[in-house]
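[job 4417] fold queue: 2 targets
>>> target A
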Amino acid sequence: MKLLSKSVILVLGNTLVFCSILQYAVEVTAQTQTPTPTPTPTKTPAQPVKKRPTTQTRASRPVFVMPEPPAGLSTISGRRRGMGSRNDCPAVETPLTALVPFQERVTASKQTNTSRSVDVWGLTTSERPMFWFYVPYTKGSAEFVLQDSEENEIYQNKNIALKAKSGVIGISLPSTVTPLQIGKTYRWFFKIRCNQQQTMSVPIFVEGDIQRVNLHPSLEQQLQRTTDPRQKIAIYAANGIWFDALTMLGQLRLANSNDASLAADWQSLLQSIKLDNIAEFPLVNY
């Protein structure tokens, strides 16, 4: 009986020791484990600060964007720089120049040869547009002619006396001229004779096409939303309406010849059709 008691006591003692050791190991493990961090709530991204609208918006510099060529352009090559006899005119560094965009046209023939010509043309919304030229000569006279696509004469002015100051001039159509029809192409010519006695020589001349178009309703709304003429000029230029953009800007410059900002606009517009060299010349009121 005593022996049995001793055995029982021994077993119980060992069991207690083992349980103590197991409990200690569990406590140590629990203390050394790194607690799982509590997730941080996601923050809503900060909203950008809205700028207060300004009361005035500076007009951007006008840059002309060439539109698709319209149907009905003349198959005859245009002339943006003066061509013809120079025997009766003095030598000049910058020739007679039409302030009009141009595109080179390459035509392939049956003999696989190619011919190159130049399309000189622009669009307008005006019934009686204005035409602009750089005139380097100060003596003699000029002639302006406008024809329809059948070569019928719409307008002719043979006696435009050159002024003593060279520069950029604008030729306007009088109110007596029949309004240009929408969608029709017209051919213009500008000729100069420095010596009226030499009538048999070919005058120095430039020529090109013009077509009147209707404004797209969205473009018309855009123009109506602004009263700033400089913004209108930029809109016309960006949408390929050359003659309207040039005439609005030219008339502004004639009325404000000392405005440096308008001069910069003029430089930008002419530079966009590769006439940087013309931008430096003054405008002469004819």
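>>> target B
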Amino acid sequence: MTHKNTICLWFDKDAEAAANFYASTFPDSSVDNVFRAPSDFPGGKKDDVLTVLFTVCGIPCMGLNGGPVFKQSEAFSFQITTEDQEETDKYWNAIVGNGGMESECGWCKDKWGVSWQITPRTLTEALGAGGEEAKRAFDAMMTMKKIDIATIEKARKGI
């Protein structure tokens, strides 16, 4: 299926490995097509993977093996909404435990440098509530790496 809009992520040379990891980790995700070079080219050989079409949680993406010129940054991230602590832990641990690294406030990076926000729905709802509830939840979040839902819930209630 061809999409009008596709997110394109630049990888050094590991687009296929990243796509396979995402497809095995997140629901409604898949590796849809792998395109290989039809002949040798500067920096590559015939049959090297050039691009990979994949889906992450229903969002169409393309991984481009463009070499080491450009790096991932926090300017782009996948934001994954979770329903409970078990789901939050599952995705966080999959990313961090597969060569990734923790960051702050529910952010982490996978081993390819792609940023992820693993965000429990309760946090988003608390911030959307505004006022003191949002402030308490925000202040609690600012002390965390992986989001602890029980702590956010207590903050929402002012406990």
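[job 4417] complete. Note on B: Residues 57 and 77 are 13 Å apart (CA to CA).
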